[in-house]
Amino acid sequence: xxxxxxxxxxxxxxxxxxxxxxxxxxxxxxxxxxxxxxxxxxxxxxxxxxxxxxxxxxxxxxxxxxxxxxxxxxxxxxxxxxxxxxxxxxxxxxxxxxxxxxxxxxxxxxxxxxxxxxxxxxxxxxxxxxxxxxxxxxxxxxxxxxxxxxxxxxxxxxxxxxxxxxxxxxxxxxxxxxxxxxxxxxx
Length: 187
Fold this sequence. Notes:
19% strand, 7 strands
């Protein structure tokens, strides 16, 4: 049995947002196979997490809140968002100290989540026993200057739902095919 954290920036459980259902199903599946699951959501999550209670051992409102913007370049990161990077790194070091694996969902992909991606990147070397699977739910189309999987370290892999685009995802993140794991969506 592994201790697995799932990090998302959810502020509520919106049934119309497909990613919430994917995370709920992922937590259910992992728990059904005997893993201990810790779900990390926004510190301003609206609710008590009861919708996840059957599937997670620990529901934690700890992901730092930030008013987000859709970044196009890493150099545009604001001072406030640099504080989010630092807070995310510290939170991850605290929350993942006892974990074997951490899943993220679209954290390393979207411009909206750049402060969190940089927080993951900063925390990674300090969490030497944690392996990371970064789920990407859409096909990357244009290069972003923070899409460099190698900057995260050897224990970080990208996850994409189809084999046909594996090489393209690796190239977009300036990596190789071995940096991408293909796991179809649970749906």
